[in-house]
Design goal:
By secondary structure, the chain is mainly beta. Helix content is 0%, strand content 48%. It contains no helices and 11 strands. The protein starts with a strand and ends with a strand.
């Protein structure tokens, strides 16, 4: 069974940075989109960013565009989410997920139904 494992969460001051990592046990992430999602207490899960692993096309939620950057390392089969200028409202459990995505096709952070394998999440806390 494919597994995704997130890491890199923690406590950071407002304005600080964290770099989340998503590791997969899949043989290959080709033909996959990898997305980052988050869920704060009492709120619905929302999309943060995604990347088409084959061609690097990305998408970002408006709330994080310009502050967060998604990237991949094909050799390590890893996807990262660099989060800068963190705000208290960014605090949440962050999940990575994968779904099928052919090269040349956009990924969309608001299409959670396209992702069928999910990690357990990593907690991000932002102190004021």
């Amino acid at each position: 069974q494919v597994q995704l494992v997130e890491s890199g969460g923690g406590l950071v001051q407002s304005g600080g940075s964290l770099n989340l990592s998503c590791a997969t046990s899949e043989y290959s992430l080709d033909y996959r989109a990898v997305g980052w999602f988050r869920q704060a207490p009492g709120k619905e899960r929302e999309g943060v960013s995604c990347i088409n692993y084959s061609d690097g096309k990305t998408d970002y939620a408006d709330s994080v565009a310009g502050r967060f950057t998604i990237s991949k390392d094909k050799n390590k089969k890893m996807v990262y989410l660099q989060m800068n200028m963190l705000k208290p409202e960014d605090a949440a459990v962050y999940f990575c997920a994968t779904g099928i995505k052919l090269p040349g096709f956009e990924c969309y952070v608001n299409r959670q139904w396209e992702y069928n394998t999910w990690g357990q999440g990593t907690q991000v806390t932002v102190a004021t």
